[in-house]
């Protein structure tokens, strides 16, 4: 004869069943409480404002178990209203990237005029991205993001692909592609740089590492130097003999500043100009 279950035993069984159901609803079945260490938090835009976490979970789950979904809401409204975007974190990095590859700029949700925008959240970005982000130039203006993904996916997992567009929404003929590792990016450069001339382009495709913030600052300083040189007396530059009138100190700084490896000299030129020191010796 079987003994009847105690109230405590029955309650424990209810809790186990409830927890199991909750884990399944949260997409956490067969997973630990936390996502993998290299999991990516993704920002997702162009979603219907009427959608809740439940509808979004159904959208994302085909690509992997979902750890967390957070719909961004306007708290000034009562009740708070969706802003049409959210954050989603999968348990694995692989699931997040597969979802991005399948949805970003490809799938348009009901009632929306533009496709889903999905990319790593700003909090996930770091300087390391610069080590694996490529600039792609001389791209056919007929290409979209999916075309670029197909072209570069043989070299590895792509985290982000973006075509530069003008205010009119038309392609500018260039793009950025970010791979998961620097090695993947290097392989893409070796195989793709100047490998073909795309439709409507005058030169072969350009594939190189995207400019870092330091590169951009260096180019800005060089542009300022060029403007400074243009402001010199046109008569001096128009007559080569006039170069002899430049002070030796200024000529030395000018020679250093025109070298990309020594931009500190440019500040010296600016200081000379700021102190009112004559750039041309009196004759």
TrEMBL record:
<dbReference type="GO" id="GO:1990904">
    <property type="term" value="C:ribonucleoprotein complex"/>
</dbReference>
<keyword id="KW-0677">Repeat</keyword>
<dbReference type="GO" id="GO:0003723">
    <property type="term" value="F:RNA binding"/>
</dbReference>
<dbReference type="InterPro" id="IPR012677">
    <property type="entry name" value="Nucleotide-bd_a/b_plait_sf"/>
</dbReference>
<dbReference type="InterPro" id="IPR002343">
    <property type="entry name" value="Hud_Sxl_RNA"/>
</dbReference>
<dbReference type="Pfam" id="PF00076">
    <property type="entry name" value="RRM_1"/>
</dbReference>
<dbReference type="InterPro" id="IPR034196">
    <property type="entry name" value="CELF1/2_RRM1"/>
</dbReference>
<dbReference type="InterPro" id="IPR034198">
    <property type="entry name" value="CELF1/2_RRM2"/>
</dbReference>
<keyword id="KW-0694">RNA-binding</keyword>
<feature type="domain" description="RRM">
    <location>
        <begin position="40"/>
        <end position="123"/>
    </location>
</feature>
<comment type="similarity">
    <text>Belongs to the CELF/BRUNOL family.</text>
</comment>
<feature type="domain" description="RRM">
    <location>
        <begin position="132"/>
        <end position="212"/>
    </location>
</feature>
<dbReference type="InterPro" id="IPR035979">
    <property type="entry name" value="RBD_domain_sf"/>
</dbReference>
<dbReference type="InterPro" id="IPR000504">
    <property type="entry name" value="RRM_dom"/>
</dbReference>
<protein>
    <submittedName>
        <fullName>CUGBP Elav-like family member 2</fullName>
    </submittedName>
</protein>
């Amino acid at each position: 004869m079987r003994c009847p279950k105690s109230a405590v035993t029955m309650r424990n069984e209810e809790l186990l069943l409830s927890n199991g159901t909750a884990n399944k609803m949260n997409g956490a079945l067969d997973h630990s409480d936390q996502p993998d260490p290299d999991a990516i938090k993704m920002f997702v835009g162009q979603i219907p404002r009427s959608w809740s976490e439940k509808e979004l979970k159904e959208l994302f789950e085909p690509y992997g178990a979902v750890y967390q979904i957070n719909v961004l809401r306007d708290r000034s409204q009562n009740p708070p209203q969706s802003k049409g975007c959210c954050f989603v974190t999968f348990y694995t990095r692989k699931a997040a990237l597969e979802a991005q590859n399948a949805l970003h700029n490809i799938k348009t949700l009901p009632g929306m005029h533009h496709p889903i925008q999905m990319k790593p959240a700003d909090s996930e970005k770091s300087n390391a991205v610069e080590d694996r982000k490529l600039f792609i130039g001389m791209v056919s203006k007929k290409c979209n993001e999916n075309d670029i993904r197909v072209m570069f996916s043989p070299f590895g997992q792509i985290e982000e692909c973006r075509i530069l567009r003008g205010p009119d929404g038309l392609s500018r003929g260039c793009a950025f592609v970010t791979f998961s590792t620097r090695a993947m990016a290097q392989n893409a450069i070796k195989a793709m740089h100047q490998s073909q001339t795309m439709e409507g382009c005058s030169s072969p495709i350009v594939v190189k590492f995207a400019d870092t913030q330091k590169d951009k600052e260096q180019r800005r300083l060089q542009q300022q130097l060029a403007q400074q040189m243009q402001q010199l007396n046109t008569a001096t530059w128009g007559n080569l003999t006039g170069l002899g009138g430049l002070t030796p100190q200024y000529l030395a700084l000018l020679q250093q500043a025109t070298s990309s490896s020594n931009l500190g000299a440019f500040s010296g030129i600016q200081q000379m100009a700021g102190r009112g020191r004559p750039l041309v010796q009196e004759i």
